[in-house]
Amino acid sequence: MDNTKILEKVDIFRGLIPHQLESLAQVSEERKYRGGEAVFTEHSSGAEVYIIKKGKVRIELGLKGKPNTATIQRLSVGQIFGELALVDKRSRSATAICENECEIITIDGDKLDELFEQDSRLGYIVMKNLAQLLAERLRRTDLMLVASVLWE
Fold this sequence. Notes:
By secondary structure, this protein is α+β, with helices and mostly antiparallel strands. The protein has helices spanning about 5, 20-25, 110-120, 120-150; strands at about 30-35, 40, 50-55, 55-60, 70-75, 80, 95-100, 100-110.
């Protein structure tokens, strides 16, 4: 499937017109991963955002003082992860592991910033959609925390 078709289904790219999606596709790269392979690990550096073209990815957090991890999200085709790198360029807050063979579209944050400079409307739409996505994830996390406290 053409990367532009995948990108138009991604939440943070909703509302972009065809030539803007094509610009994104032109600065993207495709990578393949084996099942069990990490796309990135918690605390590693990185400024790329990832979109799943094929396969499933599990997002995990390390638990302080414990040898195991907590799965906080499972993602599939058309979903994005690593998006916090677009906001703060800090180290990764979680680990992303491919649950099976995956094809991942990557977009470098610096290349994305260049696109935003060239097309401010594209930048506005992406950042507005990103803010909405992060707000949804924060609300979901709030609900999970409340449920966790209630079960203790």
